[in-house]
Amino acid sequence: MTGDKHGNSTEDSNKKAFEAFFRESYSTLYYYALHLIPEEETCKDIVGESFFYLWQHIREFRPESALTYMYTHVHHLCIDHIRNTKRRAAHTVSYLRMLQEWNTDERRESERRIATIMELIAHMPPLTRTVMEKCYIEKKMYREVAQEVNLTESGVRKHVMKGLDIIRQHFSVKYKKNSNQTT
Predict the structure, then answer these.
(1) 149-153 — which CB contacts under 8 Å span 24+ positions?
(2) Rounded distance, CA 68 to CA 76, Å?
(3) Which residues contact 57 (CB under 8 A, 6 or more apart)?
């Protein structure tokens, strides 16, 4: 019954030995990890994780072999970290290449479409071309364009719709004129 009062005496002695081992060897293991991985915070995490694992298995703690075990455990965690870092870096490089190719393709396609639209605008009837250029290239409001070309805002809208229809027809985009129609 006296053993129950203080808990398992072997476990208590293991905890005390563990605490002493921690104080004596943390720095040594930290610098060992730092030799393998030049990242201070990562090394602290790795050594901390190793000690946590050892603490979880305190019943099997053997002070005479603990340092050798911890060097091995820290070494393995460092190697795992290096592998994972290389794998993430390879995935990142692959993703960035793919993204760059996609952006380049998208940019080329966008530039091609813009060039086509500019060519279509250049071949529109003069007033429609002027209205489209002022509204979409110069970014003017319908009211401003109407004053400049002596049209009503409604007239500007009609020329914009005419220009957009020409562009849609070229790109074969069909829009419903009213929502009751089906295609």
Answers:
(1) 151/127
(2) 12
(3) none
Mean pLDDT over residues 69-83, rounded?
94
Tell me the three-class secondary structure of the chain, residue by residue: CHHHHCCCHHHHHHHHHHHHHHHHHHHHHHHHHHHHCCCHHHHHHHHHHHHHHHHHCHHHCCHHHHHHHHHHHHHHHHHHHHHHHHHHHHHHHHHHHHHHHHHHHHHHHHHHHHHHHHHHHHCCCHHHHHHHHHHHHCCCCHHHHHHHHCCCHHHHHHHHHHHHHHHHHHCCCCCCCCCCCCC
Residue-range domain boundaries for the chain = 2-91, 124-183
Mean pLDDT of the chain: 86
Rounded CA-CA distance 134/128 in Å is 10
What does pTM read for this prediction? Answer: 0.50
Q: What is the pLDDT of residue 89?
A: 87
Mean pLDDT of 59-66: 86
Amino acid letter, residue 18:
F
Provide the CATH number for the domain formed by 124-183 in this structure.
1.10.10
Q: What is the pLDDT of residue 3?
A: 41
Select the CATH number that applies to the domain covering 2-91 from these four: 1.20.120, 1.10.10, 1.10.1740, 1.10.8: 1.10.1740
